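Thread: Newbie trying to understand structure tokens

Hi all, I'm a second-year student working on a class project, and my supervisor (Dr. K.) asked me to get a predicted structure for one chain before our next meeting. I've only ever worked with sequences, so writing a 3D structure as a token string is new to me. If someone could post the tokens and maybe explain what I'm looking at, I'd be very grateful. Here's the chain:
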Amino acid sequence: MRFAVEVCKLFRIINSITFIFALCLLGVGLWFRIDPRVYELHKHIEIQNFTIAGWIMLFGGFSACLLTIVGGCAASKRSISLLLFYCVIMTVSTLALIGCLVLTTEHGRGISLERFIREGIYDQIGRRKMSVSFDIDAAKFLDFVQVELHCCGAIDSRDYNKLDMIIPASCYRIPGNFTSMNVPGCAEPLGDMLDRLAGIAAAVTAVSLISNIMAMILGGLILRSVYKSRAGPKSVSNQSTPLGVNGIDRVGRNKSCWPVSGRSSSVNEFS
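---
Reply by user tm_fold:
Sure, no problem. This is what the structure looks like when written as tokens:
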């Protein structure tokens, strides 16, 4: 079977895989936007990179789903304009995914990310201090985190004692019961949570990036094939080449991107 037909078959497979991972990308981006832990966290700690990455994954996944449908139609109809549109937008999408991959690892992973979160929580504890500069938003944020993650302070409850502050009620599992205090600090569980989110987002983005690159290359090869098949006869003769049956023209060239049963072309369009 001709190389051109094999490329078209491979493009159909890769395009389908790209659609599947685009749905996964859309789901992860939606998760980043609706998860209250991430949403509340980015308003008080400088992790806007996760917010931007979530928007990129959300819109990138949605656009990639539509783009794979356009690519399939463009290849089956052998439309130069649609194939060119597919390749250009797929290139833009690929560059956006590279940016998303960088954003998810901007503050590092593991210990470096936990250290960054710890500094942010220290800042919020300082804002919560009962004084003229009391920040009610910081208090609500710390209460939310300490209740949700069953933690207290950045490293432990002594972070409040260092600032001569009363340990808030959100540090206790049972209000008023001093033996039910949450022992661990919030930096470690928050860092672990963001580390898992960053790992999932980076993995899905990386796989989507690979499938996008493969689809873009194959789409470019099909575009080159279609352009050569239409420009070739004009350079040889001014007469058009009418089509025969099953998309095979009179000189044996397959005008259809998809395989034609029982017939094959003697002309390699990728030569």
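A couple of things are worth pointing out once you decode it. DSSP finds eight helices and no strands in the chain. Residues 94 and 212 are 6 Å apart (CA to CA). Feel free to ask follow-ups in this thread.
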